[in-house]
User: Fold this.
Amino acid sequence: MKVLNYGSLNVDNVYSLHHIVQGGETILSSKVETFCGGKGLNQSIALAKAGVPVYHAGLVGEDGDMLLEACRESGVDTTYVRKLPVKGGHTIIQVDENGQNCIILYGGTNQMQTKEYIDEVLGNFGQGDYLILQNEVNLLDYIIDQAYARGMRIVLNPSPFDEKLKACDLTKIYLFMLNEIEGEQFTGFSDKDEILASLAEKFPAARFVLTLGSDGAVYYDGKEKVFQGIFKVKAVDTTAAGDTFTGFFMASLISGATVAEALRTAARASAIAVSRPGATPSIPTMEEVKAALAE
Assistant:
């Protein structure tokens, strides 16, 4: 059984501000930092730091060397990552004094996937392998169709939630990892129980993990519900919190943990991540998470 994360790789430009800038406003930034990021990269590094061997697939631009190095330093296999002679994906991230953020995303090479490249990558995977996806690359519908035809278990984080998802056959998804905002966008409901009931009705073969911000997270498979609260910490930067949660949850499940154990591990890992600056640099190791859980 192999794990492939096919997703975005971004250079994150992070500006520290007193507050998130408003329309027409000009304010000074107290600090600017450059980090490696992208939901795909974040989740791959979280999986690797959680102890699960993971291959990453995706495209980087001329500015992508730091992204490839970050993967390799964390133990992510970059065999299937390709480099193009154009500008890669990047973000402008504002982080306020309370650790809240807002993000401007330029897709760059993340929006340049081709069917030929997708076929080349997926040709190395098959029945029972895991494919983890987010919605920051183009041709997501084609990736899902081809992976499903090969018998892969597809895990989808439908972020950002946009029109591209309508082209995807989401009945082929094995597990949805989504937050309460995306849950409401899918279903029209804001109550967590109504969201989960509606999702289970739409996608009866799938499982769901719904994250609820400060209210924790809940797993539902149409029969069993498992709830996990948060571990309270002082938030410094919430940028990679959800990706850390996804990576550690999946790594725990793949390693044989129960759903309850996987949720608890993911919640603790996410709490550590928000207490640190940056996206990929904030992601802890499994050893750190286990030590924190034992305290």
